[in-house]
Design a protein that fits this description.
Layout lengths: L16 E4 L2 E4 H26 L14 H17 L1
Antiparallel strand pairs: 1-2
């Protein structure tokens, strides 16, 4: 049985060449390519979810135009940790 997990890859394997759709890539590059591919699809899912939410979408990160408020809140939290 062939294992397809990252645990089965030795450090020496990262520089080996494998082929994906006839394109030679190092194992390391193939892993990065796959991670980018997954993130692309996650973006597609988020885009569609936003469309379907009827403007009730809650941002997955810092909301647009809310960076200042976020930074101020975290600055206060950081200061409290420092002085406690």
């Amino acid at each position: 049985m062939v294992s397809n997990t990252l645990d089965s890859i030795a450090e020496d394997d990262l520089s080996k060449i494998i082929y994906i759709r006839k394109e030679g890539l190092t194992v390391e590059d193939a892993i990065l390519r796959q991670l980018c591919h997954y993130s692309y699809h996650v973006g597609q899912i988020v885009y569609k979810a936003k469309q379907l939410s009827d403007n009730k979408w809650v941002s997955l990160s810092i909301a647009r135009n809310a960076s200042e408020k976020y930074n101020a809140k975290n600055l206060i939290k950081s200061a409290m940790k420092t002085f406690s």
